[in-house]
Amino acid sequence: MEERKIGKSGERSNGVGSVSIVISGEVDPRLEAVRKRLMEISEIIVVLSGKGGVGKSLIASSLALILSSEWRVGLLDLDFEAPSDHVILGIGEDVSPKEDKGIIPPEIHGIKFMSMFFFTGRSAAAFRGIALRNAMIELLAITKWGSLDFLVVDMPPGVGEVLMEVINIMRGAKFLLVITPAKSSIETAKRVVSILKSSNSHILGVIENMKRGKSGFEISTKLGVRFLGEIGFDDEIDERMGDVNMLKESYFFTRMKEITKRIVEVCVHNERNKNGTRSRR
User: Fold this and answer.
1) Does any domain span residue 32?
2) Which stretches does DSSP call E strand in 24-179?
3) Highest mean pLDDT range out of 27-36, 94-103, 130-139, 254-263?
């Protein structure tokens, strides 16, 4: 039976730790490549949810768009089975990464973007177990982000293997939780928060999307995490996805701008007080 161990050795000030994965007694050499690829990224924001259908990918894509107006930003879609960031941003199959001792993400709308979509197109890509881990590590190992202020990571929904791998590999990342007022969303969010807290991960806060009824502040208080803001239900948002200019004119995007200011305040201003100024575009 294979022996699989996950652990860390050392940790950088920017939070990217040196992580080793041991399979059958051998350290996976790609993990060192991943560490080097992430070294020049100041902040990693992992956008996640306990269940699908909460608008997580829309929030991740919009966050990257808003940040890119002032900062150097990357967006990584880690949903291998059903990537959707390229749909939201209107990225077609005519766009692709370049190869140069690795993969250089194309820059679209001011964002360096990487997705499994570039390799699978419209074909389904079902990964499980060791195949899922290998695919994720390989993508992280070959992607050359360069120097970034923010890398926004759009996670697949749920609390599966990808989340556990990201917690172990992207040490120091900040986790942004997306919920809706639905009871099922709140219940699964409790599980996500429990996992993040038990692994000593930094929870940036919670955004309540598709708000109806009472404020998400009460929900975030129950979860024990920072409340970053709420977005009311936008019944026109589907029509605007795929066209960035239309998306930017939506009610949803206006609310995301306000929430992004709070995210920057938490991520950047506190860090600036500790370590001096940060780079901008």
Assistant:
1) no
2) 26-27, 41-48, 73-77, 98-99, 103-104, 107-108, 111-115, 148-154, 174-179
3) 254-263
Residue with tokens 């941003």: 89
Q: Structural domain of residue 251, as residue ranges?
A: 40-275
* Cα–Cα distances in angstroms (integers) from residue 169 to residues 63, 118, 186, in the given order: 22, 23, 27
Number of domain units in the chain: 1
The amino acid present at 269, given as its one-letter code, is H
Residues in a beta bridge with 7: 20
Give the C-alpha separation, 62 to 253, whole Å. 7
Q: At residue 63, what is the residue type?
A: L
The model's confidence at residue 198, banded by pLDDT at 50, 70 and 90, is very high
Q: What is the mean pLDDT of residues 250-263?
A: 97
Mean pLDDT of all residues belonging to the chain: 85
CATH number at residue 77: 3.40.50.300
Amino acid at 188: T
CB atoms within 10 A of CB 117: 23
The confidence score (pLDDT) of residue 220 equals: 80
Q: DSSP letters along 234-280, please?
A: -TTHHHHTT-HHHHHTSHHHHHHHHHHHHHHIIIIIHHHHHH-----
Q: Using one digit for the tens of pLDDT, what is the confidence trace for 2-45? A: 333 333 333 333 444 434 444 444 568 889 999 999 999 999 99
Bridge partner residues of 108 (DSSP): 111
> Which SS3 state, helix, strand or coil, does residue 217 take?
helix
